[in-house]
Amino acid sequence: MTYTDKHIVETYSGLFEGLSTMNKIELIESLSKSLKTETKTKEEIFFKSFGAFSSEKSAEDVIAEIKSSRKFRNKEISI
Fold it and tell me: Of 29, 32, 66, 76, which residue has the fewest beta carbons closer than 10 angstroms?
């Protein structure tokens, strides 16, 4: 365990001291469930995000729509 990991664990342990027994049990159950679930790598999560935007429009139409919705205004700033 690295020094940083040890420090993180000690910090969280200090926070848990103020919890009631029931809250600690709930926390243990939650941590246990998180260990049982399949962990995904950052790469898997990144590639899973592809295709999240779904539209029937072509890419060119979406780009044109975004560009046409832009609004610019000239504002003079006096110094």
Answer: 76
What SS3 state is found at 1?
coil
The answer to whether the predicted template modeling score (pTM) of the entire model surpasses 0.90 is no
Q: What is the DSSP string of 9-75?
A: HHHHHHHHTTS-HHHHHHHHHHHHHHHHSPP--HHHHHHHTTT-S--SS-HHHHHHHHHHH------
Q: Which residues, including other chains, have CB under 8 Å from residue 40's CB and lie 6 or more apart?
A: 48
The percent of residues in the chain predicted with pLDDT above 90, rounded, is 32
Q: How many CB atoms lie within 10 A of CB 27?
A: 13
Structure tokens at 64: 């044109």
